[in-house]
TrEMBL record:
InterPro entries referenced in this protein's UniProt entry, alphabetically: SecYEG/CpoB_TPR (IPR018704), TPR-like_helical_dom_sf (IPR011990), YfgM (IPR026039)
Keywords annotated in UniProt: Cell membrane, Chaperone, Membrane, Transmembrane, Transmembrane helix
GO CC, any one term: plasma membrane
Subcellular location: Cell membrane
Membrane topology according to the record: Single-pass type II membrane protein
Name this polypeptide is given: Ancillary SecYEG translocon subunit
Organism superkingdom: Bacteria
Amino acid sequence: MEVYSNENEQVDALKNFFAQNGKALVVGVVLGVGALVGWRYWNNHQDGASREVSAAYQQVSSALDASKPATLEAAAKFASDNNNTYGALASLDLAKRYIDNNQLDKAAAQLQSGLQDAKDANLQAVLNLRLARIQLQQKQPDVALKTLESIKGEGWTAIVADIRGEALLSKGDTQGAREAWSKGVASDASSTLKEMLQMKMNNLPG
């Protein structure tokens, strides 16, 4: 399954995301939150310099095409040249395209680079959640669990619990997965996300 299958979903479609099932749903939520974080920054930093950087980011982002290496190189240069929020957002976009090309190592490296530029805790959380998903796909559950430890804030509890449960289950720790998902069910998450986590718990052996 593609890690970022819902990248192009509009932010307002988040209201309908929880009608879906499986990991792609959680990924879609993470991506949607990432878009909201980016939009908040665009609105809060509209001085002259920020407008220029914002315009440059939008141009680079809209031109990205996984089948066109030149657009990937342009985005990578933008991310490298801008050690700020826009650089981090470019890293998010670029990592998705690397996933499209099945270049998981490059995607992970780009997200780690973005983390060095991100100052906002929510943006950092989005980067770390995406990184943990990739690390799981790379069959590195222990690394993914370590990445999840960096995510703070009650608003992320259920999504972190979902990924943590998947990581523990991949290690054969059924009880650990059950406890992780149970924490997500007990959190202040949407009812449908809780139902999804409960369904995963119900499907566990024993």
